[in-house]
Design a protein that fits this description.
The chain is of the alpha/beta class. 35% of the residues lie in helices and 19% in strands.
Amino acid sequence: MITVTRAILKLSGELFADDQSHLSFEKYDTVAKQLIEISKTTKIELAVVVGGGNIFRGREASNYVDHAEADSMGMLATIINGIGLREALVRNGAKDTRLMTTVNIYQFAEPYIRSKGRHHLENSRLVIIAGGLGIPNFSTDSAVAQFACELKCDIIFKASTVDGVYDSDPRQNPGAKKYQLLTFSEALNQKLNVMDLTAFAMCEKSKIPIFVFNINDLNHLPKIINGDRTFGTLIES
């Protein structure tokens, strides 16, 4: 059983959208309340990496658009979500929440410095990290893998649209097999779509396990931390 003292949670930007809008303050509020409850219940040190897919994804830009500029727009989209989530956390009682960005935007957030991030976590502050890695061509999967290593996290929690890793897409194949436990080698050999390959290789090298679960089960994170793996799939060395 993995002892979790410090964890990093990857949240997809789509979590902050609803049927009426790409950006929902009610969704920020819901997630913030869940994160506060998780912190109170488990007492773990928690960092959160936010995506920006509800607003803009660099890879969705047209072929004639410069891809580096499109990725820059995607990084800024994650910062918008970071600001929205921080505001909701502070308003709901987590007043010492810190937003850190890899892009220099000091009017709105602290610059991401790994030693400072570790200091915030050691002092029981919720830490949101936005801006991806601050450079084009790298996804937020790569960012969460890098930050997990730099912040010395025990595990990566990857919120997904399905409840774990399957041998095929369960939305297309009702008979898809769900895995509860995998090794990094098994996931690579079977070409299972857990993270992009760069991020996955980083996790394998740093030996930081990944737990993939359905974002709708975010409120069950305390059970997962306490050893209940039925909510998703654990990938480890």
